[in-house]
Amino acid sequence: MLRQVSLFEELLMNTDNAMDKDLIISLFNLVKNFYYILDIYDDCNINIKIFNYLFVDLAKYTIDEIAEYTYVCERTVRRFKKKTENIIKFIIENHKQYRRLSKFFKMHKNT
User: Fold this and answer.
1) Which of 33, 11, 31, 32 lies closest to 21, judged by CA?
2) 105 pLDDT band (50/70/90 cuts)?
3) How far is it, in rounded angstroms, from Cα 54 to Cα 60?
4) Which residue, 31, 29, 21, 14, is CA-closest to 104?
5) 44-57 residue pLDDT tens
6) For residues 77 and 64, what is the distance between their CA atoms, to the nearest angstrom?
7) How far apart are CA 35 and CA 40, in angstroms?
8) Would you say residue 3 has pLDDT above 80?
9) What is the mean pLDDT of residues 22-26?
10) Does the CA dihedral 88-46-57-34 come out positive or negative?
11) What DSSP string runs through the chain?
12) Whole-structure pTM value
């Protein structure tokens, strides 16, 4: 079962600063656009579907439900989730614009 709040919602809840919230929303859009372009390149729509089920939809789905809705195995959904969190971590740690978010990401990892 997935946690109740998505990674982006948790990061947004842990900040009060409007500038940091804008950075988190910008990061969310960056990752979403990455998967959208990847799907266009691969001529499919699976990546953006999984991303939307995991991070965008207001309804909370289990890994099994997402796998069933997207016609992939649950292991693929778990790998996708892990890969997405690794991409976010890499961007936060290595891009100057997002380094401000590193403290919030460390707080997220500790919870």
Assistant:
1) 11
2) low
3) 8
4) 14
5) 889 999 999 988 87
6) 9
7) 9
8) no
9) 88
10) positive
11) ---SS-HHHHHHHT---HHHHHHHHHHHHHHHHHHHHHHHHHT--HHHHHHIIIII-SS---HHHHHHHHTS-HHHHHHHHHHHHHHHHHHHHH-GGGGGGHHHHHHHHH-
12) 0.79
From 105, 100, 103, 104, select the one nearest 19 (Cα to Cα). 100
- What CA–CA distance (Å, rounded) separates 54 from 38? 17
| Residue reference for tokens 């982006």 | 8
Distance CA(3)–CA(69), nearest Å, equals 19
Structure tokens at 110: 């500790």
Distance, CA of 57 to CA of 59 (rounded, Å): 5
Give the chain's mean pLDDT.
Answer: 83
